[in-house]
Amino acid sequence: MSVAEIGRLELWSTNSGELVWTAPADRENHGCISFDFELGEDSKTLMVVGVFVDKGSSTNSTTISYARVFSFDFERKECRLVIERVLPAAELFRLIIRGDFLFVHSTHVLLVNWKAHSSVILSYLEQSGRVVNAPTVLVGDQHIVVALDINPLSLVALPLSSLAGRWPQSAYHAEWEVITIVPGHRSCGAVLQLAPYEGQVAGAGPSVLALHAFSPSWRGADAPMEIHIAAYERILGLQRTKRLHSYRVQLQPAVSAVSDEQWRLALVARRTTITNYVPLKSRWIMNSGRMLSVREKLVCFSLFQDALQPVKILNLGMNTRPEEESTSASVKPWSGALTIGTPGLVRIVHF
What we know:
The chain is mainly β. The protein is about 0% helix and about 50% strand.
C-alpha cells in the first residue's frame, strides 16, 4: 500500500511491480492522508482503511474527513467499499485496523466495528478530570488494551462486552455515544499501574513509545494474551541520554476471592536500560520483543534485556530520512520484511 503525492491510495504488487488497485476518487478535492491494512483470516482478502480529507478549494484547512474501509479480493482482483464513516475535522489521524475493529486516533479514540457497521467514542480521563492522551490502543482477546501517558504509566484492558448496547449505527460521528473511562473506576476493566522504578524523580515518568499485543497460539488455546510496552524517559542534565523502559504483561483470568473481576493484568518482566537513541515514533514491536525504528538506518532494540540499546544498527544506504515529509515506513510483526517509502521509491528490506 502507498499514497501518491496527490493523495491517491494505491495497492502495488511487489512481485510484478504493477499497480493492482487504486481507491476510487468519489469526491472532488479529497485525498488520503493516513491508512492501514490487515490480511484477512482466509489470506485471500486484504482489508484496507484510509482517512480521506477535503482540503477545500480556497483554504488549506481540513473541512471534512471520511474513514473508508475496503475489502480487496486477491483472486478476483476486485475491491469493494465495506463502510464509510464521517469523522471530526482534524489535520492528523492515526489508524489501526485489527480484526473487526478500526481505531481512529484524534483527540479521542474513535472505535468502529466495520462488520456490524457500528461505532463508539472512547474518552480517557484522569481522576482529576483531565483528558488523557491514549497514544496506543489495540484489540486482543475480546479486550480493548490501552496504554495511558499518566503518572504512573498505566495499562487498561476493557472488555468489549462492557460496551454492549452502546454502539449506534449512524454514519456521523456527532451521533456516536461518548464513553468516558477513568482508570481505577469499577467500570473501566482491568488496570495495571506500572510502579516507578527505584530512584525515579517524583512527578516524572516515562512516555509511551509503542504497544504490541498478541495471542501466542503455539503455547495452546488457553495461553494468556501477551502485551509488550516500550516507553522512554529523559534524564535531567543529559540532553541525549535517555532511559528505555520495557514491560511484558499478560492478561490472565482473575483468581481473587475478594473481587468479581474476571480478568487481571499481570506484570511478568520489566527492564530499564540506557540509550542515546530513541525513535521519534514507533509502533513496530514484534512478537520476539524486538522494536524497530527507521531513519537513514535500520535501528533494532531488544526489549526485556539489560544490554545497552540499540543492539543493532544497519546502514540502508538511504539518502532520505523516512521521518521527513512524504516518506513512510511500516513493518508487520510476523512478516520478516520492512517497507520504506521515500519520494518516488519504495524499498522492501527482509531481515
